[in-house]
User: Fold this.
Amino acid sequence: MKRLLLLISVLLLASTFAYGQEENASNNPPVQQAQNQNELPEVKVQLRESAGVEIPAGIVVPVINMQEVSTETCPVGYKVKFVSTNDLFIGDIKVIPEDTAFYGYIEKINEPIVGTNASMKVKVTKFVFPDGYEQNIKAYVYTSNDNLIGGELTEPSEWVRMPHYQDTFQGIAWIHRGATLQMRPGGKRSMGAHTKLPVGERHLIIFLAPSYLTHTISE
Assistant:
């Protein structure tokens, strides 16, 4: 009889303990569940897609000079500024808008000498769009003479008379050919002059290296 009472007591205690565990579980969720509830909700960021375009080497941009640049008054390293005069497109994409500013400096100066005018090279290092975006580039003010501005031969400083003989014989008995004196430049040339780019003069800027552009141009 005592053993039966003991068995019943053990069963009652076991059922009471199980009930308490279920109640605690319902009131206190697992640690993992609590951590999941404290996590921030997933946020999806909308990224703006931007298709880049390459400005190839060799492309030229028409510009206007914003200040006088002279081999007489400007040293090597003198800073220069040009502004594009119209929009530049590659295909149907506008890559350089009108009024884009181009900045650079005088890279090299050759002083005037006898027979040759002064010359200079102007390197362009960056452009700035009207909306403020800027990008470094490698470019020069273009000329057909390897981008050398100036350097022309000067006028002759002396002229000599030289006979120019005609093809047919003239005179008595057709024994001599007629001759005409002509003025031709001698071997000496005058002193060279300084070279300058006046304000408002139009030029071309040529890209010597490609430039990859990803900036969206605002209309």
